Automatic annotation (TrEMBL):
This is Multidrug ABC transporter ATP-binding protein. GO terms for molecular function: ATP binding; ATP hydrolysis activity. Belongs to the ABC transporter superfamily. InterPro entries: AAA+_ATPase, ABC_transporter-like_ATP-bd, ABC_transporter-like_CS, ABC_transporter_ATP-binding, P-loop_NTPase.
Length: 308
């Protein structure tokens, strides 16, 4: 199956000479949730803005379901819904009027039944007659999603969609996003809440200084780059690690009451057996142990640090 979005050799240099994007190549599959991660100023919003037709690329091409975003702009843009970082709407209009008007901008005939279902799915139906200015930040963010979906797009961009949204509303919002994905909508999101990307995404892309430094299936990424830590709770605290254990690169934690050993769980050998043997020879006893897996945040920070 061909990708729903195909980005080829895309670059963007502004009039100031700043190169925001450097030869980006990316394919996004239909029906997936793709998370684009990167520090501030990495190029996330520029890339999304080009795909959505808001910013003009300096070179390269983008197609949406086979439609070129420049030569076949109307067809390409009609397939895309965008929820920007900033809340952009007439605060004096009602929820219902705002969403219906957005649908009309794309030349779609009125469809009250569809708008009603959309507002109910986003838990906005009881607010349909409320002016936007009276809504909470989380509710306003939901209205932005409803606007983006009003013309029934097949691709939805969410640029920091849960910024300023409380935890409870955030969970409800992600339930709605999952439901959209299950209905066949392709989701591309940027987020500073890396835990959300870890929970939600099928694939992860990491962008830094205008370059895509990694695109990987989330499970494969965690499998390849994730490290495990073995934490040993000691019977007696240590002030320093004996020289005989230097080969294991241990660290002391919790005021010397814990020894932490980091290892690659996918390697041919973890080194745990050798570690335990050397601990016994050093007469270091432990009363409990625990293992933890590196999170996506750990992996992301490490990737960006390496790319500096």
């Amino acid at each position: 199956m061909p990708p729903i979005i195909s980005v080829k050799d895309l670059s963007k240099t502004y009039a100031t000479g700043f190169q925001a994007l450097k030869t980006i190549n990316l394919d996004i599959d239909k029906g997936e949730i793709f998370a684009l991660l990167g520090p501030n100023g990495a190029g996330k919003t520029t890339l999304i803005s080009i795909i959505c037709g808001i910013v003009t690329a300096s070179s390269g091409s983008v197609t949406v379901d086979g439609h070129d975003i420049v030569s076949d702009y109307r067809a390409a843009r009609s397939m895309i819904g965008l929820v920007p970082q900033e809340l952009t709407a007439d605060m004096f209009e009602t929820v219902w009027t705002t969403v219906c008007f957005s649908r009309g901008l794309f030349g779609k005939w009125p469809n009250p039944a569809f708008i009603e279902k959309l507002l109910k799915d986003l838990s906005l139906w009881d607010k349909k007659d409320s002016r936007l200015m009276t809504l909470s930040g989380g509710m306003k963010r939901r209205v932005m999603i409803a606007k983006a979906l009003s013309h029934e797009p097949t691709v939805l961009f969410l640029d920091e969609p849960t910024a300023g949204v409380d935890v409870e509303l955030r969970k409800d919002m992600w339930q709605s996003v999952r439901a959209l994905r299950d209905s066949g909508v392709t989701i591309i999101l940027t987020t500073h809440y890396i835990r959300e990307a870890e929970d939600m995404a099928d694939r992860i892309g990491v962008i830094n200084k205008g370059e895509l430094i990694l695109v990987e299936d989330k499970r494969e990424l965690m499998h390849k780059l994730g490290q495990k830590q073995l934490t040993l709770q000691l019977h007696e605290a240590l002030t320093e690690i004996p020289a005989s254990l230097n080969a294991h690169h241990l660290t002391l934690a919790n005021e010397g009451n814990e020894l932490v050993y980091t290892y690659d769980s996918q390697g041919p050998r973890t080194g745990i057996t050798s570690l335990l043997t050397d601990l016994a020879h050093a007469d270091i006893r432990f009363k409990d142990l625990d293992t933890t897996q590196s999170s996506l945040e750990d992996i992301f920070v490490d990737l960006v640090r390496r790319d500096r």
